[in-house]
Amino acid sequence: MPRYLLSVFGPAARTDYGPYPSKEDMLQAFADTGAFNDRLQREGYFVFADGLEPATTATTVDGQGESPVLTDGPYLETKEHIGGFWVIEAPDLDVALALAADGSKACRGVIEVRPFQTAESVAALLDS
Amino acid sequence: MTPPDVDASLVRAHHEEWARIVAGLARRYGDLDLAEDATAEAFAVAVQRWPDDGIPPNPGGWLMTTANRKALDRLRRESQRDVKHLAAQHLVDDAPPEPVGPVEDDRLRLIFVCCHPALSMQARVALTLRLLGGLTVAEIAHAFLVPETTLAQRITRAKGKIKAASIPYAVPAATDVAERLTGVLAVVYLVFNEGYLASGGDEAVRTPLCDEAIRLGRLLHELLPDDGEVTGLLALMLLTDARRNARVSRTGELITLDEQDRGGWDRGLIAEGHALVRERLAAVAAGGPAPGRYQLLAAINAVHTDAPTARDTDWSQILALYDRMALIDPSPIVRLNRAVAVTELDGPLVGLAEIDRLTDALDGYHAFHAARADVLRRLGRSGDARAAYDRAIAFAGNPAERAYLTRRRDQLAL
C-alpha cells in the first residue's frame, strides 16, 4: 500500500506554548491530535508520528566535503517550519488527502502530503 | 491523396473514440503514459492503412484492438523478463467490464484523474486536452501560447505525480462527487473561455479550443445527464458559441451583443441550448436542487438569444438572474455584469454609481473600464469616457476587443 509523509508546518515565531496562542489552545490541540492518532491506529493507517522541537534547535550538516560543515539552525530560513509529521499508509491519494485535512484541523497546522518512493519507482529509476 | 471519406472517418473516429481508447487502456494497464502513446500509435496506423485497406466496418473496435496490441508490444519490449507474468495478468483483465451504468464509464474516471484537485490548474487543462481531447502537444502549446517543451514537461510532470502519489483512477465517492465535479466543469469552462475570449495572441477566437470544450461538455452530459450544472455548462457554451460568427467583424473587430447581426447566429445551437435550459427550468420547478452558476449563466444567455433584436431584450429578467448569481457568487465581476443590466433598466446615471463602487476591486480589469467608458459615453461625458477607453485598451489582451474599444474611443465627440 502507498505510504505518505504528512509534514506539519507552523509559524517559526513561537509563544510560551510553542506555535499555539495560549495554553488552552495547546491542550486542545494535543487532545485533538491524540484522538486523531488513535483513529489512524484503529483504522490501520498509522505507521509513525511525532512532534519536533522548534527549528531553532536544529543543526544543518553538509558532509559532502572533506570535513563536515555544521550550521546552527534549519536548512532553510523561512517563516514556517516543519513542526511534526505522520507517516501513514493509505490506498490512494484521495484517502491520504482526506486524512491530512482531518490531521490539519486537529493539530492546527498546514500539512504537506508527499508519497514515499516504492520498490517499483526505485526499480524504474535504476532502469532509466 | 487520402480520399475525402477516409479523412472524414479518421476525424470522426478521433473525436468519438480517442478518449474511450485512452480510458480503456488506462484502466487495463494502470499507466497513463502507456495508454496515451499506444492510442496515438493506433491512430497513426489508421492514417497509414485506412486509405489503402479501406475503413474498417467497426472503426472504434479496430482502433481499440490496434491500440491494445501496441500497448502489449511496448510492455514486451520494455520488460522481456516479465512478459509471461504480464500476459497471464491480462488474460484475467481482458474480460469486458460489467455494464454497471454510465457512472462507471472509464472516460468518467479519466476525467476525474485529469481534473484532480491535487494537480495545478495548468496541468489539469493540459492533461484533459491531451488525454480526453486527443489534441497534440503542439496544438495545446499553440493554443495557450507556451513553448512545446514547456507544455510537454507539464504533461509529463502531471502524469509522474499521478503515478507516484497514487491518484486513484476512480470516480470519487458520492459524498465528494459534487465538489469534484465543480473542479471538472471549471477546467472545461476555462478551455472554452480561452478559446472564445483569447486573452493573448493574434487570433480573436481560437476555434479549436471552443470546439474541444463543447465536445468535452457533451461527453460529460452524456455520462452525467441528470446533473444540473453539467447540463447548464453545456447550454451556456452552446448559446455563447452560437454567436461566434456574428461576434467578430470582417476587419477583425469585436462586435458587442447589441450590435451583432442576429441573422448570423447559429439557430441550431441556440435551439439546442434553449432546450437544455428549459429542461433545467422544469427540473428546478419539480423540486430539484437550486440552479448553480452555470445554469444561471445559461439562463441569462437564453434570455439574450431569445430576443429578436437587442431592443427586445428582457433586462428585468436578466437583472433577476444576476441577483440570484450574486447570492451564490458575490464576486465583483458578477456585480459588474449586474451593473450593466441596471444601466439598461434604470439608465446610465444609476448604472455608473453601481460601476464606480467596484473601482477598488476591478481597476486592473479591462471589462470594468470598457463598461464604465460606455456608460460615460451615454452620459455625454466624452473626456471621462476617453480616459476610461484608454484604460480598457491598455488592459485588453484580445486584439478584436482592442480594435473595438479603439474605434469607440475615436468616435467620441471632441
TrEMBL record, chain B:
Transmembrane segments: none annotated. Residues 17-79 form the RNA polymerase sigma-70 region domain. Keywords: Sigma factor, Transcription, Transcription regulation. One of its GO terms (biological process) is DNA-templated transcription initiation. GO terms for molecular function: DNA binding; sigma factor activity. The keyword Transcription applies. Residues 111-161 form the RNA polymerase sigma factor 70 region 4 type domain. Residues 180-279 form the DUF6596 domain. Signal peptide: none annotated. Pfam families: DUF6596, Sigma70_r2, Sigma70_r4_2. The keyword Transcription regulation applies. Belongs to the sigma-70 factor family. ECF subfamily. PANTHER family: BLL6612 PROTEIN, BLL6612 PROTEIN-RELATED. This is Uncharacterized protein. It comes from Nostocoides australiense Ben110.
